[in-house]
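Problem: given the chain below (173 residues), write out its structure.
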Amino acid sequence: MGNSYDVSMTEEREVLTWDLFGTASRELAHQVADDGFEPDLLLSIARGGLFVAGALGYALDVKNLHVMNVEFYTGVDQRLDLPVMLPPVPNAVDLTGAKVLVADDVADTGATLKLVRDFCAEHVAEVRCAVIYEKPRSEVKCEYVWRHTDQWINFPWSTQPPVVQRKVTVLDA
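Solution.
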């Protein structure tokens, strides 16, 4: 097919199914609850973190969810030099004094999580990170991790190609 969604049959990959995601997000929520951390709000890193934050929001009974759009990956193991926050960036006033749980699907290099965590750190009472997967090379060591891996991960929301191919716009670039 020749697109970034091709999967080599010879490479070892971590495969997360929808069913396993349900288990993973529930176990991640138990880690947060068992630790006694009670976030005032969940900050999801779009797009993969939207699923994690939604599941954690229900499991931890947190209705206050915010979204940060960060562009870093452009394909399988292809990324920009640095992650970039895309608008709209949350208003720091909305975060002031809050206990924030940052949710994402994976801490790969950790650059995206570091960008978001550092953005929050100046404004919030406390910030912690929760991810489904953390890779050994991540520069951010998350407080809550479901599994550690050094493999590429097939997530159920991103392994199949889009239904339509959109033209790149200013917001997508």
